[in-house]
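Revision sheet: structure tokens.
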Amino acid sequence: MKIRIKKIHQKQSAGDIMISVTTYVLYAIFAFVCIYPFYYIFINTISSNVLSAKGTILFLPKEIHFKNYVDAMRIPGLLNAAMISVGRTVIGTFLTVIATAFMGFMFTRDSLWHRKFWYRFVIITMYFNAGIIPWFLTMRNLHLTNNFWGYILPVIVSPFYIILAKTFVESIPKELQQAAEIDGAGTMKVFFRVIMPVIKPIMATVAIFSAVAQWNAFQDTLLLMTDDKLYSLQFILYQYINQASSLSSLVNSSSTSAVAQSIATVQTATSIRMTVTILVVGPILLIYPIFQRYFVKGIMIGAVKG
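Predicted:
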């Protein structure tokens, strides 16, 4: 016997329709405001550099070419710098996620000696900062200058990430840990076998935050690294932007030579800035689709109690 389910269509009032239309329009405007800057930068990187410098490229590319990206790839040391940035992002993110998850888990266990003291000891570092000079002296005394691990070790422990992880772990029923402990599981086994599979959303959230921070960082390179083999991608491109600005100023001066003018016609400061922006932002954008399904659940945990 087939059961027919009759759908009931509720007629919307004029006020409901107006609210829906207004909501869609506002969301469309908000989406446009978010997407357009990236689109604007991209079409300027593939359009005529002369027109781009004049600010005439607004919605559609003109005189399309990809020479900007080819020229950017020829920057000396770019490949090595890209490997440094990828390495610090992957290794730093992995270690940060593991350390954050483990510390967030341990700060929820009553068996941890002076648990509340150590938790407050870590969190208080969010509010106090010694400054750049003491930080640099500490890094130098630890032999982390001109050392790849200078990118990784200082950021493994982050109080904000630990708060997120601890809050998430506290939302997990205690019975899961107690059942594992009754079966003879120790602390490490409970963490890797019970806790880690359950806290994937907050781990993905921390991974996104950490990866973005590692990928975009360049100040630590400026302060700690004098060996050009350890320069990060962002620092190399930052230097190149400064060189492009100097070239643009040279071209605009009255004493510009014909050679410099021909170079500037092909590559302007505006085109270099925009190409560099795409090169820096593009790879990190790929992380969001991978972790997006975990991100919302992870960041919203603890927002609703009861």
